[in-house]
Amino acid sequence: LTDTTTRPGTGARNPKDVTMLRQRVITATILCVVLILPMFLAPSWAWGLLVAVGLWLAGREWQRLILPASALLSVTAATTSPTPLGPVAAATVPAIESSPRGSPTWLANGLLVVAIACLWWRESDPGRAQAGWQNALLVLDMLFWLLFAVPAVFRARPFPFGARTFAAVSLFCLWLGLYELRRIDPKLVLTVMMVVWIADIGAYFVGRAFGRRKLAPRVSPGKSWEGALGGLAVVLLVSFATLALIPADSTLAAVFPRWLVERAGIVATILVLVAMVALSVIGDLHESLLKRARGVKDSGRIFPGHGGVLDRIDALIPTVPLALLVIQGMTGSPE
User: Are 177 and 321 in contact (CB under 8 A)?
Assistant: First the structure.
């Protein structure tokens, strides 16, 4: 969704943005290899453990981004300019950043323990049916995103209370989605992730060429409505091409759009894809909001010069749980 490689109305390229795009491609290629091989070749417990470790790292980063409620309230109360995270936040954040914040690991450690416990519970009895609490938690996660994250993004103010609960629920539901989808079929989890990646790539290039109207200028000035809609259009085009090229009885029928059409029809498939693309944009913007409030460029430094784990998965955090909720709602079980 970054629309800054060229200036609107000009053909000039910013060398820094070209370098960033090259870094993104290299990093994405490496991550794809690291993820796809165990996704298809490793047993489900190994995949679940790998994902849990990755989300442990993301949990550490997310907790570091969360400002104390008192700081958020003071920023919100004191700011009257059109840019709520501007001068006041800039003056407030450095003092908070340099002050002791305590251990940033409880959220990550708790997430890892709960994920491993759930992993053991699922793997100890392969025939065990999915529990009702999973769907209830997924619904709660979606409500959090719709009722709290969406307003926070468009008001450009992080919500001051419940941020850690939201982070814990969101990251665990992401783990749950990646693990349970892998148990159904590795192609499902890969193609659900690809929906998000294709939307991001489409938004980048469409926004770079045609972006004019800013989507959330106070949070991420480089994102545009044209880019977001372009990303959705590319997702729909690729999905329709998938439907046309992959027969229903093919071994590739577990590709997400094909799987969804066979069980819900074309209209429901389009609605789900629209919802996933919209949530992927919100996930990206929400992390940008947290970073802007904290006054940092990246969530971490695990990828040299390229950010942290949270920077790479922000758009997946709300979308993968939605995909699992839809699939389990249609099948009644993740098996």
Answer: yes
What are the two backbone dihedrals, phi and then psi, of residue 223, each rounded to the nearest 5 degrees? -100, 140
* Rounded distance between C-alpha atoms, residue 335 and residue 332, angstroms: 9
105 DSSP assignment: -
- pLDDT at position 13 is 54
pTM: 0.85
Strand partners, 303: 307
Q: CA distances (Å), 16 to each of 23, 230, 334, in order?
A: 11, 24, 44
Q: What angle do CA 32, 278, 248 make, to 5 degrees?
A: 65
Contact 246, 253 (CB under 8 A): yes
pLDDT, tens digit, 9 for 90 and up, residues 229-286: 999 999 999 999 998 888 877 777 789 999 999 889 999 999 999 999 999 999 999 9
CA dist 291 and 183 (Å) reads 34
Cβ-based burial of 299 (10 A; exposed 0-12, middle 13-18, buried ≥19): buried
* Least confidently predicted of 91-105, 186-200, 239-253, 314-328: 91-105
For the ranges 75-79, 109-113, 150-154, which has the lowest average pLDDT? Answer: 75-79
- DSSP string over 219-252: TEEEEEHHHHHHHHHHHHHHHHHHHHHS-TTSTT
Residue 216's beta-bridge partner residues? 220
Of the candidates 239, 251, 247, which has an alpha carbon nearest to the alpha carbon of residue 276?
239
Could you tell me where the beta strands, DSSP code E, fall in the chain?
214-216, 220-224
Which residues, listed in sequence order, are joined to residue 220 by a DSSP beta bridge? Answer: 216
Q: How confident is the model at residue 306 (pLDDT cuts 50, 70, 90)?
A: low
DSSP string covering 261-302: HHHH-HHHHHHHHHHHHHHHHHHHHHHHHHHHHHT-S-S--S
The residue among 26 and 155 whose pLDDT is bigger is: 155
Q: What's the CA gap between 202 and 196, in Å, rounded?
A: 10
